[in-house]
Write a structure and sequence with these properties.
By secondary structure, this protein is an alpha+beta fold. The chain is built from 16 helices and 13 strands.
Length: 359
């Protein structure tokens, strides 16, 4: 399989950029990086904010406007393609150091990693695309043991280094390509420019936030976060809310007065992007969203900015059943709003949706 050339921008009815794909690209760029370890959840995070379908998001990935890779925290994210290289370079050094013991325990010595990198770069050069099973076969054929989590560790490492990134999915399988061939162009900031962009764009998309939120989101220490905020200059300001100092964007818009009910996926940035989640939910409610505090986030029902329940889905044939577990009593009027939110999710999937309530 070979990489197709970058798609030319498509014109909309008014002669401007194709609206849906452009909106997807701008939305992902605005959020800096959107958690997408679970690809379906990551794409719905985009869909719920844009009205795009899953097919639209897949098309944006295939057009190389959006790319999935490992920019930080050892976790897959969706990013604007032009941001992949500088984010990996700025944020992954610490993660690569942390992973050294895991690699050593798996028998992935520096020599093995170097050999695997060379094998994959040679195989992918010239526009080739490899699925995960094809990567495993290639490593095996070259005398490299891909068993256990070794193949996953290796491709993740090379994406973190900015050597590889993910291409469009091959069915249910992720694919891998050379970043330098996949990315049509990249912004190339120096370190100070990159730090300023990180802070200003994170605050604009997630604010109000604390320095601790920023540090936790990009897996850096507080010194790093404070330096980034300082470099952002006048783009970031401070506001005191409830006795706590928060970072806010200087040009932030007024918050919307009326917000519809949303069914947000598990791992959505609205919940995952913060160390302190007391604004949208209580500590007891947070335990229901992250049962056992094991890092697995359930989908959330959000009303007026507050998390009022969780939800999950099961699919059989063309029908998907959404099961809502409210934290308290839910009125008939609120159920109708949840039904509308579920209908939007159905449009995203291209499936019929049935909503049921636990209990």
């Amino acid at each position: 399989m070979r990489i197709a050339p970058p798609a030319e921008p498509q014109a909309g009815p008014d002669g401007g950029p194709e609206p849906v794909r452009d909106t997807i690209a701008r939305t992902v760029h605005h959020h800096l990086a959107m958690q997408a370890q679970d690809l379906s959840s990551g794409m719905w995070s985009v869909g719920v904010r844009t009205g795009a379908t899953r097919a639209d998001v897949e098309a944006a990935i295939e057009a190389r406007l959006v790319t999935r890779s490992w920019p930080m925290r050892g976790t897959l994210h969706l990013m604007a393609t032009s941001d992949v290289r500088w984010m990996c370079r700025l944020l992954n050094e610490r993660m690569l150091t942390v992973q050294r013991k895991v690699f050593e325990a798996s028998g992935l010595t520096d020599d093995v990693v170097d050999r695997a990198r060379k094998v994959l770069v040679e195989a992918l050069s010239g526009g080739a695309v490899l699925s995960r099973p094809e990567v495993v076969k290639l490593l095996t054929a070259n005398g490299l043991d891909p068993s256990g989590q070794r193949a996953y560790h290796l491709v993740g490492r090379f994406c973190q280094e900015g050597v590889l990134c993910q291409g469009p999915a091959d069915g249910r399988q992720p694919t891998f390509v050379l970043l330098e061939e996949w990315v049509p162009w990249s912004w190339e900031p120096d370190r100070e420019e990159a730090m300023a962009a990180l802070a200003s764009r994170f605050v604009a998309s997630h604010g109000p936030v604390t320095e601790r939120d920023l540090a936790g989101w990009c897996n850096q220490n507080l010194t790093f976060a404070r330096e980034a905020v300082a470099l952002a200059g006048e783009a970031v300001t401070t506001e005191t809310i409830g006795g706590q100092a928060y970072l806010v964007a200087a040009d932030r818009p007024e918050p919307a007065r009326d917000t519809p009910v949303r069914l947000l996926p598990g791992f959505d940035e609205y919940v995952l992007g913060y160390k302190d989640r007391s604004a949208p939910m209580t500590a007891v409610e947070e335990l229901r969203v992250v049962p056992g505090k094991n890092g697995m986030f359930l989908g959330t029902v959000v009303v007026g900015g507050l998390v009022v329940g969780t939800w999950n889905r099961k699919t059989a044939g063309k029908r998907t059943v959404v099961t809502v577990t409210p934290f308290g009593t839910i009125s008939a009027a609120r159920r109708r709003e949840v039904d509308r939110a579920a209908t939007a999710y159905g449009r995203f999937l291209g499936r019929e949706i049935t909503v049921v309530y636990a209990g």
